C-alpha cells in the first residue's frame, strides 16, 4: 500500500535531487553565458552601442563584472540558493518582479494545454477502443494517422496555420494574447501547445489499452459479469494510463519549454519569451532566475506525477517497496 | 498508412491557402468617417525596449515609442531643414563655440515641471553622466562642454569644438528633453515612465505585452507634423509587442491592431493592391544598409580583391525579387532621405569578367573546387550575420550574393549569430565582410562609421569603423565637415568624403534601412523627418 510515509520519503528523495538539478542548472547556465559573451551589451543598450569608457567602467563596477570570475560564480550561486536574483541588466528591474509577472501566464498556458492534451488523448483512445467492426477499424487507422502527425507537427507551423485560418481569415479568434484579448486569446495558443503532446499521450495510451483488453484480469472481470464500460473504466484504462502518467512529468516540462515558441508566435507575456529575450542579450540575472524557476517547477511536477502514479496504481508502489526491502520483486500482486 | 497521416495537415494548409486567395477582394470605400477619442493600437515588431527613456542606451525601439511622449529641442522636415520645436530659435557664434537657444514660453512637462533652460542643462548632463549608460545620446552631445542657464527661456551651449551636426543631433529622439524632476527619480523609475512634453503620457508598462499611453490633456508644443491646435485626437495608445511578422499582419487584418511596423514585403505588396490597408514608407536616415569589407586584413587589404567582390556581387536581382519592389537599390553610403547623400552607380556595375581579371591580377588563381587560392590560402570571406538585426529577407539576399561571388571564386561563409556573439566576432576582427545598421540624423554618421577614431573600440569591444578605413585625408575631410557651419561648404566637403569612401571599394550599398508601416482603421498617421518615427498627434480612428 501507498502510505503517507512512503510518499514522504519519495518526496524527500526528489527534493534532494531537486537541489542537485538546480545547482547543476545554475552552474551550466553561468558558464555558458560567461563563455559566450560579455553581458555589458545588455547593460549598455545593445545595437550600435558605443558607450563612453566611463559608462562602461561604471556598469562593470555596478554589476560586479569587475570581480574575479570565481567570485561572480559564487555570488550567482548565493543568489540562486536564496532565490534573490538581483536586478535585470537590460530591464533595470528586479528579476523577482519580472518572474512574478511572467510565471503565472506561462503556468496558465501550460496547465490548460496539459489538460486539453489529456482530454484529447483520452477521447481519441476511447473512441478507438470502443468502436467495433469496420467503423472501429476506420477510426483506429485515422487516429493512428492523426496521432503520428500531431506528435511530429512543429508548433510554429501549427500555430501559424491556426492564426492564418482562425484570426486572419475567419476572424473568429484573436491572433494575439494582448491585454484586451482575454480568455478567447488563450484558445489558439493552448491548442497549438496541446496537439503535439496529445498525439504523444494518445500513442502511449493506445498500445497498453489494446493489450490490457485481452489481458487475464480483463477476461476475469468480464467473466464476473462486468459491463464493457466498467471493464474499461475500472480495469483496462487504469492499467493503460500508467505509462502515460509517468510520461506526464516529461510532457509538462516540454510544455514549459514549448511555451517559448507559442509565446513569441502569439505575442503572449510569459516565461518562455522572457527567457528568449534575456538569452539573446546575455541578461544573466534574468536567464538564471528564469531557468531556476523552470527547473523548480519541473521538479514539483515530477513529485506530483509520482504521487498520482502511486494513487492510481498502488501495485507499483508495493512492488517498489518490496524491492527496496529486499524481498522478491517479481511477486505478483493480484489486483 | 504512410499517406493518410498527411491528409489532415494538407487539408488545413490548402484551406488556409484558398481562404487567403479569397481575401484580397476588398470593399470600395468612400472616404471613411473619422471619430475623435478611442484607443489606437500599435503593434511593433522591433524589440521591446528595456528602458522607455531613450537617454539610456539609445536604440531604435526606444526612439519609436518615446516619440509619443518626449519631444526634442528642434525638429527636421522632409527636406532636411531644421525646424523649431521646444526651441523657437537659435543662433551660433562666428567661431561656432557657443549656441544660444530660445525656448518656447509657458510650456510644462506633464508632471507640471516648467520647461526652462535649467531643464535643458539637466538633460545634457543626464546624457553625459556615466551612470545614465547612454551610448547614442552621449555621442550626440560629445562636443557640448557645458550648458549655461542665461535665463528661464535662454540656454547657451558652450562647445569644446565647433559641431556642425549639433542641431541634427538635438533633433534626434535619443536626446529628447525630459522633466528634470522625472530624471531625479532615478534610473529604475525613469525607465518605467519617463516624463516629457509630448502628446501622450506613459501610463502603464506590462513587460512583453504592452505599454499604455494616455492623451496629454495640456499639450502645448505642436511639433512640425502637427496640423491642428491642441493635443492628440485619440484618448490612448496601446503599444503592443508582437515579435512574429505573420502574427502582426493577422492582427492587423483582423482589426485587433490599427498599425504595424516591420511588415513582410509580401504584406506590403498585398496592402498596396487592396483598399483596406494603407502603407507608409519612411526609410530611416543616417547610413544606408550596406556590406562593409574589412580592409585591414587579407584578402580585402588588397583593393583589387575588394573591387572584384563588389563587381561580382550583383545584388540588384535579389533586392528586386526578395523585397518585391519595396526596397530600391542604393549606390550611396547615406540613406536616400539624407539631402547630402552622394551616389555613384558606375562603381557598382556588375561585371564578372572584370572581377575575374582583377582577381587574376591580384594573384588569386582558381583551385580545383572553384575557390581561388593564393600561397596555399583559400579566398575565404567570413561574414557574420546578426540574426537579431538582419531580417530573413536580408539574409536570403546575403545568400544570393554568396552564390554570385562564388562564380569568380570567393568562398563566403555566412555565419548567423545572436547579437552578443556577433559583437564578439567583430570585436575579435573575425570577419572579412559584415552588415551593420546605423541610424543617425545627418551626414555626420560618416564620421562615426569611417573616421579612424572609430577604429578604437569602446571598452565593451565595439568599434563602428567596420570597414577599418584608416585614411588621414578622409579623417581630415570628416573633421573639417564637422567644424564647418556654412551649409554649402559643408555639403561640398561631405560629397568629397563620400566619393573617397566609395572609391575604396570597402562599401557595397544595398538599400535604405527599411521602415514601413501598415495601417487600418486610422487616418492621419505621419512620420517625423528626423529618425522617421511615426507620430499620432493627428491620428483619428475611422468608424
UniProtKB/TrEMBL annotation, chain A:
Pfam short name (any one): BPD_transp_1
Record-annotated membrane-spanning stretches: 12-33, 107-131, 152-173, 185-205, 240-266, 286-305
Cellular compartments per GO CC: plasma membrane
Entry-linked InterPro entries: BPD_transp_1_N, MetI-like, MetI-like_sf
UniProt topology in membrane: Multi-pass membrane protein
Chain ranges of the ABC transmembrane type-1 domain: 103-309
Subcellular location: Cell membrane
Superkingdom of source: Bacteria
Phosphoprotein found in the keyword field: no
PANTHER family tied to this protein: DIPEPTIDE TRANSPORT SYSTEM PERMEASE PROTEIN DPPB-RELATED (PTHR43163:SF6)
Name under which the protein is recorded: ABC transporter permease
From TrEMBL, chain B:
Name by which UniProt lists this protein: ABC transporter substrate-binding protein
Assigned protein family: Belongs to the bacterial solute-binding protein 5 family.
InterPro entries reported in the protein's UniProt record: Peptide/Ni-bd (IPR030678), SBP_5 (IPR039424), SBP_5_dom (IPR000914)
Ranges where the Solute-binding protein family domain occurs: 81-451
Molecular function per GO: peptide transmembrane transporter activity
Pfam family of the protein (one): SBP_bac_5
Keywords: Signal, Transport
Signal sequence residues: 1-20
GO biological process, one term: peptide transport
Matches recorded under PANTHER family: PERIPLASMIC BINDING COMPONENT OF ABC TRANSPORTER, PERIPLASMIC OLIGOPEPTIDE-BINDING PROTEIN-RELATED
Biological source species: Leucobacter denitrificans
Coiled-coil intervals, chain numbering: none
Domain of life of the organism encoding this protein: Bacteria
UniProt-annotated location(s): Cell envelope
CDD domains: PBP2_NikA_DppA_OppA_like_15 (cd08492)
Amino acid at each position: 500500500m501507498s502510505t503517507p510515509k512512503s510518499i514522504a520519503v519519495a518526496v524527500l528523495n526528489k527534493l534532494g535531487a531537486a537541489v542537485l538539478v538546480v545547482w547543476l542548472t545554475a552552474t551550466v547556465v553561468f558558464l555558458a553565458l560567461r563563455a559566450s559573451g560579455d553581458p555589458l551589451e545588455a547593460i549598455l543598450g545593445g545595437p550600435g552601442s558605443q558607450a563612453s569608457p566611463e559608462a562602461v567602467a561604471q556598469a562593470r563596477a555596478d554589476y560586479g563584472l569587475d570581480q574575479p570570475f570565481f567570485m561572480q560564480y559564487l555570488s550567482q550561486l548565493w543568489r540562486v540558493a536564496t532565490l534573490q536574483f538581483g536586478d535585470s541588466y537590460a530591464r533595470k528591474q528586479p528579476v523577482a518582479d519580472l518572474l512574478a509577472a511572467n510565471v503565472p501566464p506561462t503556468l496558465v498556458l501550460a496547465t490548460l494545454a496539459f489538460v486539453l492534451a489529456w482530454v484529447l488523448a483520452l477521447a481519441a483512445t476511447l473512441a478507438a477502443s470502443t468502436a467495433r467492426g469496420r467503423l472501429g477499424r476506420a477510426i483506429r487507422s485515422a487516429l493512428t494517422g492523426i496521432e503520428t502527425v500531431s506528435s511530429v507537427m512543429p508548433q510554429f507551423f501549427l500555430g501559424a496555420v491556426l492564426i492564418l485560418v482562425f484570426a486572419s481569415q475567419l476572424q473568429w479568434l484573436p491572433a494575439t494574447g494582448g491585454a484586451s484579448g482575454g480568455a478567447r486569446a488563450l484558445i489558439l495558443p493552448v491548442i497549438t501547445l496541446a496537439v503535439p503532446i496529445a498525439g504523444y499521450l494518445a500513442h502511449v495510451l493506445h498500445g497498453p489499452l489494446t493489450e490490457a483488453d485481452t489481458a487475464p484480469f480483463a477476461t476475469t472481470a468480464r467473466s464476473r459479469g462486468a459491463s464493457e464500460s466498467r471493464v474499461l473504466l475500472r480495469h483496462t484504462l487504469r492499467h493503460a494510463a500508467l505509462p502515460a502518467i509517468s510520461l506526464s512529468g516529461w510532457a509538462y516540462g516540454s510544455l514549459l519549454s514549448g511555451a517559448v515558441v507559442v509565446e513569441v508566435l502569439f505575442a503572449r507575456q510569459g516565461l518562455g519569451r522572457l527567457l528568449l529575450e534575456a538569452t539573446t542579450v546575455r541578461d544573466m540575472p534574468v536567464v538564471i532566475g528564469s531557468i531556476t524557476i523552470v527547473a523548480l517547477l519541473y521538479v514539483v511536477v515530477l513529485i506530483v506525477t509520482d504521487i498520482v502514479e502511486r494513487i492510481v496504481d498502488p501495485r507499483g508502489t508495493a512492488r517498489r517497496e518490496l524491492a527496496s526491502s529486499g524481498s522478491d520483486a517479481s511477486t505478483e500482486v493480484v489486483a | 498508412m504512410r499517406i493518410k497521416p498527411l491528409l489532415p495537415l494538407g487539408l488545413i494548409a490548402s484551406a488556409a491557402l484558398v481562404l487567403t486567395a479569397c481575401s484580397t477582394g476588398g470593399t470600395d470605400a468612400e472616404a471613411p468617417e473619422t471619430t475623435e477619442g478611442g484607443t489606437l493600437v500599435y503593434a511593433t515588431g522591433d524589440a521591446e525596449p528595456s528602458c522607455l527613456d531613450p537617454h539610456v542606451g539609445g536604440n531604435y525601439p526606444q526612439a519609436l515609442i518615446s516619440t509619443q511622449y518626449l519631444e526634442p529641442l528642434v525638429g527636421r522636415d522632409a527636406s532636411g531643414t531644421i525646424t523649431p520645436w521646444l526651441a523657437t530659435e537659435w543662433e551660433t557664434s562666428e567661431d561656432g563655440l557657443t549656441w544660444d537657444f530660445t525656448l518656447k514660453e509657458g510650456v510644462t512637462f506633464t508632471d507640471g515641471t516648467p520647461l526652462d533652460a535649467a531643464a535643458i542643462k539637466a538633460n545634457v548632463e543626464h546624457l553625459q553622466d556615466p551612470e545614465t549608460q547612454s551610448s547614442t545620446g552621449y555621442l550626440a552631445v560629445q562636443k557640448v562642454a557645458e550648458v549655461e542657464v542665461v535665463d528661464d527661456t535662454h540656454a547657451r551651449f558652450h562647445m569644446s569644438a565647433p559641431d556642425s551636426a549639433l542641431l541634427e543631433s538635438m533633433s534626434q529622439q535619443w536626446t529628447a528633453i525630459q522633466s528634470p524632476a522625472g530624471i531625479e527619480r532615478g534610473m529604475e523609475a525613469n525607465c518605467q515612465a519617463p516624463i516629457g512634453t509630448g502628446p501622450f503620457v506613459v501610463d502603464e508598462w506590462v513587460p512583453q505585452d504592452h505599454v499604455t499611453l494616455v492623451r496629454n490633456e495640456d499639450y502645448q508644443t505642436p511639433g512640425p507634423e502637427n496640423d491642428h491646435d491642441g493635443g492628440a485626437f485619440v484618448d490612448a495608445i496601446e503599444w503592443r509587442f508582437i515579435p512574429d511578422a505573420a502574427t502582426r499582419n493577422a492582427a492587423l487584418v483582423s482589426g485587433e491592431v490599427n498599425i504595424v511596423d516591420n511588415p513582410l514585403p509580401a504584406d506590403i505588396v498585398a496592402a498596396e493592391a487592396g483598399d483596406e490597408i494603407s502603407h507608409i514608407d519612411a526609410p530611416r536616415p543616417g547610413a544606408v544598409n550596406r556590406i562593409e569589407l574589412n580592409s585591414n586584413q587579407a584578402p580585402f587589404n588588397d583593393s583589387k580583391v575588394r573591387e572584384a567582390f563588389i563587381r561580382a556581387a550583383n545584388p540588384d536581382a535579389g533586392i528586386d525579387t526578395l523585397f518585391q519592389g519595396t526596397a530600391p537599390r542604393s549606390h550611396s553610403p547615406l540613406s536616400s532621405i539624407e539631402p547630402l547623400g552622394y551616389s555613384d552607380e558606375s562603381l557598382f556595375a556588375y561585371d564578372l569578367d572584370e572581377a575575374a581579371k582583377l582577381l587574376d591580377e591580384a594573384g588569386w588563381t582558381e583551385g580545383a573546387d572553384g575557390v581561388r587560392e593564393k600561397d596555399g590560402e583559400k579566398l575565404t570571406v567570413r561574414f557574420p550575420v546578426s540574426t537579431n538585426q538582419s531580417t530573413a529577407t536580408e539574409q536570403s539576399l546575403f545568400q544570393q550574393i554568396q552564390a554570385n561571388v562564388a562564380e569568380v571564386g570567393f568562398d563566403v561563409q555566412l555565419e548567423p549569430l545572436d547579437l552578443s556573439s556577433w559583437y564578439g566576432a567583430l570585436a575579435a576582427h573575425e570577419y572579412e565582410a559584415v552588415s551593420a545598421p546605423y541610424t543617425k540624423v545627418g551626414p555626420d554618421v560618416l564620421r562615426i562609421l569611417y573616421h579612424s577614431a572609430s577604429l578604437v573600440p569602446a571598452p565593451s569591444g565595439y568599434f563602428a569603423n567596420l570597414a577599418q578605413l584608416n585614411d588621414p585625408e578622409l579623417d581630415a575631410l570628416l573633421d573639417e565637415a564637422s567644424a564647418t557651419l556654412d551649409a554649402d561648404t559643408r555639403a561640398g566637403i561631405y560629397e568629397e568624403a563620400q566619393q573617397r569612401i566609395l572609391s575604396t571599394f570597402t562599401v557595397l550599398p544595398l538599400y535604405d534601412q527599411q521602415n514601413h508601416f501598415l495601417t487600418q482603421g486610422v487616418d492621419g498617421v505621419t512620420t517625423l523627418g528626423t529618425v522617421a518615427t511615426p507620430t499620432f498627434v493627428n491620428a483619428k480612428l475611422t468608424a
